[in-house]
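$ run holo --ligand "protoporphyrin IX containing FE" --emit tokens
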Amino acid sequence: MTEQSRHREDIEAGDLFADVPPPPPPDYLRDGRGIRSWLLTTDHKRIALMFYAVIVAMLALGGIFALLLRTELLTPDQTIMTAPVYNRMFTLHGVTMVFLFMIPSIPATFGNFVLPIMLGAKDLAFPRLNLASFYVYLLGTGVTLAAMVWGGVDTGWTFYPPYSTSTESSVFPVVVGIFIVGVSSMMTAINFIVTTHTLRAKGMNWFRLPLFVWAMYATSVIILLATPVIGLSLGLVGADRLYHFGIFDARFGGDPVLFQHLFWFYSHPAVYIMILPAMGVISELVSTFSRKPPSSYDAIAMSSLGIAFVGFFGWGHHMFVAGMSELDAGIFGGLSMFVAIFSAIKVFTWTATLYRGRVAFNTPMLYFFWFLFLFTFGGMTGVAVATQSLDVHWHDTYFVVAHFHFIMVGGTITAFLGAAHYWFPKMFGRLYSERMGLLTSVSVFFGFLFTFVPQFLLGNAGMPRRYYSYPARFQWLNVVSTGGAYLLAGALLLTLINLLCALKWGRRAGPNPWGSHGYEWMTRAIPIKHNFETPPVITRGPYDYHLPEEMPHVDPQAR
Amino acid sequence: MSTRRLAEQFEDLAKQDHAARLAMWIFLASEILLFAALFALYTSYRAMYPDEFARAAAHNNLAIGTINTFILITSSATVALALWAVRGGLQRLAGWLLIFSIGCGLLFLVLKGVEYGQHFRAGIYPGAGYRSAELTGQGVVLFFTLYFLITGLHAFHVVVGLAVLCWMTAGSLRGRFGPDEHVRFELGTLYWHLVDIVWIFVWPLLYLLHR
Ligand code: HEM
Ligand SMILES: [Cu+2]
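-- output --
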């Protein structure tokens, strides 16, 4: 494997096709030195790495908050914090994880890094906008965190009025921070859409786009459609701090439930902002490590657009107990289940891709399997809670908490980890320790199961969410869940250490260590600043595994 | 011969222009969605309080609202003419047309201020500050809260639009645009048209729909 890839690297470095070999340009990590060359870079790959660093820090921070929450829940009464602190803690956890980590996670890091390379472009369409989006994100993150830590907010990540407009805590600056982070996502989304339209290499038609690009495209569309609406609704809640507009205040004839409509009109699609990029990663993983094209490219690409579309019509399922007519509940329930159909199309297509593939059981592929299992389970519980009669029982219990963590942690974070291992050689030119990778991956999976399976049982037994104490009969399940959370956190920490070690001591990787046929692997081992020495010309699809690997994806003579 | 710089990631200027236009259109669409959230609130509350909304809307100064509509449409027309002038190489003319548009925009804001003043004197404030004794009812208060939020957000966009127009004016008078150097100019005009389009929806909602 490595022998072969080294050989290939030699061919590229020797530049067989040019008459006089020009001195090879340095790779992007070495092209420009010093802190300024990073902070002011317009290279999408360096911006991606800066995002990566901050986003991982956010994941760690959100994780620490989660551990504190779980520690509090070890005993039925107060363990380490008072009730008001607990309320602030779960808001810190939810806001950090959703707005600061999960929404930007895969697009801003891996999307930023590989999307232009996959398109055969030199960079995104607006490199400076891309850099600006990073600083806007930093600003928003700083404001949000500072306000939550110094001011404290106890509303939960959903900011429901009337509580959010009457609590003493500092809702206004937090909401401003979230708004700023939203602006950053929109900058990224505009950049991705325009890049996909205008910077595709010669020969790259829409049906030669890698599926990850389709996922990024669909995600960007949702970001653009939904973010302004939440920005405005949160803005209205926040503005009530400065002047009491009372638009959602029943004393002035306002309707607090309208906020829920506006909020979920955004935030339900936002859950697809969180899962679609993960699905894009998964499509790449399964194809590379089964050495087969996805069993239906069209089904995966089109179902992303389908999800993006019907995702906008299901928001009412969050409000089944907020005084909704049975007719509406039936309609919203039915429309929500449509999403499950599109998701199932994907799940079956991925599974069918394995059939007769040459499946490699390495770390990214393990994450694929965890994703497949956990996402399916989480999605099916979603269908269950989308039924009003059942949801009346489960609403606001740990059952719902378990449902969305199965998808957000079991789906998105596993895909994030899969991507972190899969693209690691391309990003840094080195290989991580496979043995540690497998070990940590298995631990992540079991840590996850121990954390969240008990929560389904707790919710079903009637334990409500967002309380710092509970009846003693719920204790043993809570202890199991807390133990699982520590295992999960330990496994994530080991994963981070494994990858950090690989940065320094990992074996050098060739340009294509996985033998993938994806376009991003046809660059040099570590890409140069503008990705390609000559503009590539695409002569085949990204999953054409029936063609021999040696056949170039690009026609190097063409200009 | 164009003097414009081609950014290195683009093949040619045509693609680069296409990208810039596409990005601007997407941005404008998202701006519309910002207002759409307010319009959705308006629609819901109107459905809840139809009579009170009608009473409140009838109280608004139709004359000012209508004159303002004409002012904005006129300014949009002169902005469009300015683009035509720039394309034809008539930069000074474009500059003067823009100055006229800026004047219209300022006049719009002045009239809006006059109208706000009338409301305040009648005790009509948004939300908690509302204290009119003649015009009462929860739906009425909600209407005026939305009125101030929508027109306020719109006025904010007018101010931003005016800043953009000033930048374009300075550029035209200094001859920075030209027949093959007008894409940024064009994008600026698009922003002003957005301000105009939004108002076309605001006007009937707040001034006309009470009969
Ligand atoms: C497969 C289709 C899905 C269906 C039918 C579905 C259905 C539902 C329903 C009905 C609820 C409300 C439960 C309640 O509050 O009583 C809910 C909550 C939630 N779901 Fe899903 N869901 C699906 C997929 C997803 C995905 C993909 C994500 C995230 C990536 C997600 C994240 C969430 C979150 C965050 C909540 C709880 C929000 C809160 O109240 O804090 N769901 N889901
Ligand atoms: Cu939902």
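-- notes --
The longest helix of chain A spans residues 83-119.
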